[in-house]
Design a protein that fits this description.
With 561 residues, the protein is mainly alpha-helical. The protein is 43% helix and 4% strand. It has 16 helices and 8 strands. The protein has a two-stranded antiparallel ribbon with strand order 1-2. A two-stranded antiparallel ribbon has the order 3-4. The protein has a two-stranded antiparallel ribbon with strand order 5-6. Strand 3 and strand 4 form a beta hairpin. Helix 14 (460-503) packs across helix 16 (537-546).
């Protein structure tokens, strides 16, 4: 979308603009720079490069395509300071402070201290320090305002857990002491007490360590289906999508709860807790079942009725017989080969095949310098294009030199691709074009000054002749100005006649206008023929200026105010 503030260009300006764009795309002209001095890619389409009218600042650039900086919000660790006292305790009462406790941050009505019989204002003792007021400029985002755990101190939970652990430890100590007293006692009462204590301890260990009733699967009742659903998931199990939180890692299908690929392929196999569903599919009896399936397909093609789904036992037995016969055939073939060509001791003592025949099937072709031309190990390509290819006597590749937003050769500093290398001379020429231009201009000025100094002094007669020449030139210029003024006056009269002709509505008015223009003379027969009409240059120019162009969309508003 073009900017609304862009001015209308003439044909020449538009042509120059197009030529500059083509030159920038071809690389012969430097790229356009934005406000920060960064080069703008000339191949970017116009609908992306040009800013819309509501964002246009009439400056080239791509800032309208950039994301606006987001507002910075408080982090998860920033929160209001509550219950914190500011500074040391005051030693005397301050004017405007709370009369009950002596703090400056609140008054008596809002004081949270216990109301004293005699306030600190009158006693002058036990002054409380000032509280830290809550910061009102804490910027919280949408989630931060609704986070119920925001500002929670994890040390409180640690203190609570340590408290319960200490209570549990004391309770165990008391239970051991109780068991020791029961052992000392005699009779059935001691045995009953011991059994009861063992039962309680076992229940507790089962609840804590998962060896008692807590390890049993939980049953759920679904009133709609009237069936009992057992929850076989253990709480210690980690969900598959939590092994790697990278969104680009293995795909997790929430519908089937499956993750086929390995979420952590870079870890060692012995250290991985979960290697994906495909790992489980590749182990166990999966490979055996796949072999049996392949055997069933081959047997069915040969006319044998084998179906692992319809008759799995029959397919298993036939597959076992097939493997036994196959092994027997291999052994028999091996024995025949050993009897004809020798046993294992001969094959073990034989040298490698490459040394035995002094040749291999690998074809390798070398050049005179010993480089591999064909065959051998294929080298990995570093790029799709050929690299380090030097042409036209260059000692550096194209793109090794950058100057004025253009690429070139670093060996000669030329900015034209596929050009012939000029060496050090090209460097000097590219390094100082401005210096050479300034030196040439300075030489010309010096020569002019020397010529002026060498001119001999003029006599009075020569000075008088020069003055007369300049005076004659002034008269000629004055005559030219008068001629131009007369021509402009004639053109203004011709334009006025064209305006009156355009406003003439009837043929009589037009005839009268023509008669007036010919100074009252009557028109003769054939007076409008091409030979007899005398049209001046000013009238032709006025006609072309006032002529209505039918393709002009504003033609109906010409001549109207």
């Amino acid at each position: 979308m073009a900017s609304a503030g862009s001015e209308r260009l003439s044909k020449e300006e538009y042509a120059k603009k197009k030529q500059l764009e083509e030159a920038r795309k071809a690389g012969t002209a430097p790229a356009e720079l934005d406000e920060d001095g960064n080069a703008i890619n000339p191949h970017i389409p116009q609908y992306i490069a040009v800013a819309p009218w509501y964002l246009s600042d009439k400056k080239p650039g791509l800032k309208h395509q950039r994301i606006v900086d987001k507002q910075e919000f408080a982090s998860i660790n920033d929160w209001y300071t509550k219950g914190v006292r500011a500074g040391p305790r005051p030693t005397k009462f301050r004017k405007g402070a709370c009369t009950n406790c002596g703090a400056m941050t609140h008054d008596v009505k809002n004081c949270c201290e216990r109301p004293r019989k005699v306030g600190a204002r009158f006693t002058g003792r036990d002054f409380k320090p000032d509280e830290v007021l809550l910061a009102s400029d804490l910027a919280l985002d949408y989630a931060g305002k609704r986070d119920r755990w925001n500002g929670y101190d994890s040390s409180e939970h640690t203190a609570l857990m340590s408290k319960y652990e200490a209570i549990d430890k004391e309770r165990r100590v008391l239970k051991r002491e109780k068991d020791a007293e029961a052992v000392k006692a005699e009779g059935e009462d001691a045995a009953a007490v011991k059994n009861e204590s063992d039962k309680e301890e076992g229940d507790e260990e089962g609840f804590k360590e998962g060896t008692g009733y807590n390890n049993a699967p939980i049953q759920k009742m679904d009133p709609k289906t009237r069936t009992t659903v057992r929850n076989l998931r253990i709480r210690e199990d980690t969900a598959k999508y939590l092994y790697n939180l990278d969104p680009d890692s293995a795909y997790y299908d929430p519908k089937t709860r499956s993750m086929r690929e390995n979420p952590n392929p870079t870890e060692k196999p012995q250290e991985q807790l979960y290697a994906g569903d495909n790992f489980a599919r590749a182990g166990g009896d999966v490979s055996k079942f796949a072999d049996m399936q392949l055997y069933s397909w081959d047997a069915y093609d040969r006319g044998q009725e084998v179906h692992p789904q319809a008759a799995p036992s029959q397919a298993e037995l036939l597959h076992r017989e097939f493997k036994v016969k196959k092994d027997q055939l291999k052994e028999q073939q091996k024995r025949l080969l050993s009897a004809r060509y020798g046993g294992d001791e001969v094959s073990a003592e034989a040298p490698p095949r490459a040394l035995l025949l002094a040749q291999t099937e690998e074809y390798v072709e070398y050049s005179r310098s010993g480089q591999v031309i064909k065959g051998g190990e294929r080298q990995t390509a570093r790029s799709r294009w050929e690299e380090d290819v030097l042409i036209n006597n260059h000692t550096a590749v194209w793109g090794s030199w950058w100057q004025d937003s253009q690429w070139g050769y670093s060996c000669c500093h030329l900015l034209i691709k596929n050009s012939y290398c000029t060496g050090e001379a090209g460097r000097k020429l590219a390094a100082g074009p401005l210096a050479m231009a300034t030196a040439t201009s300075e030489k010309k000025e010096v020569q002019q000054e020397e010529e002026e100094e060498e001119e001999p002094p003029k006599s009075l007669m020569e000075e008088r002749l020069q003055q007369l020449k300049t005076k004659g030139k002034g008269k000629e210029e004055e005559e030219e100005r008068k001629k131009e003024q007369q021509q402009q006056d004639r053109l203004a009269l011709a334009l006025a006649d064209e305006d009156r002709r355009a406003r003439a509505s009837t043929e009589e008015e037009l005839t009268a206008l023509d008669a007036g223009s010919t100074a009252g003379r009557k028109r003769k027969y054939n007076s409008l023929s091409a030979d007899s009409v005398d049209v001046t240059d000013e009238q032709m120019e006025a006609y072309h200026l006032k002529r209505v162009h039918m393709e002009d969309p504003m033609r109906d508003f010409i001549g109207k105010e």
